[in-house]
Amino acid sequence: MAEKGKAAGTSTDANLARRGAAALRRAFDVREGRASWPQIRKRFVGGSKLDGTHMCILIVAMLIASIGLNTDSTEAIVGAMLICPLMGSVLAISYSVATADMRLLRHAVAGLALQMVICLATSTIYFLLTPIPYETSALLDNSTPTIWDLLIALAGGFAGGLGNSRKQEPSTLIAGVAVATALMPPLCSAGYGIAQQSLPRFAGAIYEFGVNVVFIALAAEVVLLLLHAPLHRDINDDGVVTPQESEEAVAISHRLRRNVIIGTFIFAIPCLMVTTGVVQETVQQHTKGTTATAASQTSDQYETALTTQELKAVQPEIERYSVGTEYSYAANSVQPTERIVATVTSSRTLSAYEQDRATALVRVHVPGVDEVRFVIGSANPSTE
User: Which of 25, 324, 325, 372 has a CA between 20 and 30 Å from the CA of residue 171?
Assistant: First the structure.
């Protein structure tokens, strides 16, 4: 009976575990609520079509972003990212790779390259004409790619791909993705590098832009693969899919995915190296800052800075003030004797009244002072 009860309990636990796992899978099932494939293709591909309106918006957004980076205006930078149309080409690249649509891939990459040229030209012209030719913190931030930029691009691309695949319109979500992933500011920084003829600044900014593009597209592609996006099997685009074309589409898909994995890994190596250097530098600066703070606190434990100000207020002739500990050995004594000595340096000899007043002020801040010395430049000190 005991064995039967134990077996029943084990079976119940197993059923509960299976139900919990099934509930968890349903909760995170990205295929639930998916839009139709024609609608998904329209959303992913529609934003990559270039026309006059698209180009005008691109130039205006680039101008706004350049002004924002040049003046450290967060509002202008965010506004430019919201109206930036570059995300359309990036999502089209992800869709073309996921569906092995080589014609769409070539079109999307060419469109993105053309938009990059226009953006670089716009930002370069602006930074050549601007009366503020200095490098701002915003320009610096958008030309130093780190692992955190990579992670943001991955998360943003996943969110963008997921939003475009839903039945409801993803306008709000896509706007948030555009701000988070920041495609346009690195191109502005690259234009600044061209205007200043700075190859390191240009290279760093272009690489950061590349990191954003690659990992946004990669994450959006992962979403499409999770949704089992159908391959583009009509290789010749003649409306007829032959068995040979179907096999070729599968081969192209495998080759593309393999190349994407290898290329992405290689592309991320410089970013990881830069991140390692940034982390080490940050740790060193933090350590130095902590040490300096501790030393400052130790050296000013007697409130020397405040006392100096007060002494100069009551006696303008006083130039410097310091407190230290002196050690001396008495006869037949192993342990040294500690004495707290304060030194007051003045431009002339202070009268007895002035010395008494300064001594009283010193004892307020250093009650245990053993000696107050008064010094005139390099002259011998008088003690109180």
Answer: 25
DSSP letter, residue 336: P
- Structural domains present in the chain: 32-288 (1.20.1080), 304-383 (3.30.300)
Q: What per-residue confidence (pLDDT) applies to 298?
A: 45
Q: Which of 242, 182, 237 is nearest to 213 (CA)?
A: 182
User: What contacts 227, CB < 8 A, 6 or more positions away?
Assistant: 30, 31, 34, 40, 165
Question: Strand, coil or helix: what is 186?
Answer: helix
For the chain, list the strands marked E by DSSP: 318-328, 337-346, 371-376, 382-383
pLDDT tens string 42-97 = 989 888 888 889 899 999 999 999 999 988 888 888 888 888 888 889 999 999 99
State which amino acid sits at residue 190: A
Residue 290 has pLDDT above 60, yes or no: no
Q: Has residue 110 got a pLDDT over 60?
A: yes
**What is the rounded CA–CA span in Å between residue 91 and residue 43?**
9
Q: Distance between CA atoms of 308 and 322, rounded to whole angstroms?
A: 8
- Cα 9 to its chain centre, rounded Å, is 51
Of all residues in the chain, the percent with pLDDT exceeding 70 is 86
Which residue is listed with tokens 């226009």?
118
| Cα–Cα distances in angstroms (integers) from residue 69 to residues 38, 78, 105, 193, 334, in the given order | 39, 10, 32, 13, 67
Q: Which tens digits make up the pLDDT trace of 202-211? A: 998 999 999 9
Residues for the chain: how many in total? 384
Q: What is the residue type of 129?
A: L
CA distance 63 to 188: 9
E strands present in 44-95: none
In sequence order, which residues have a C-beta less than 8 Å from that of residue 255 and are 6 or more positions away? none
Q: Are 315 and 358 in contact (CB under 8 A)?
A: yes
Torsion of CA 250, 254, 257, 263, to 10 degrees: -140
Per-residue pLDDT tens over the stretch 140-165: 777 778 888 888 889 988 988 888 88
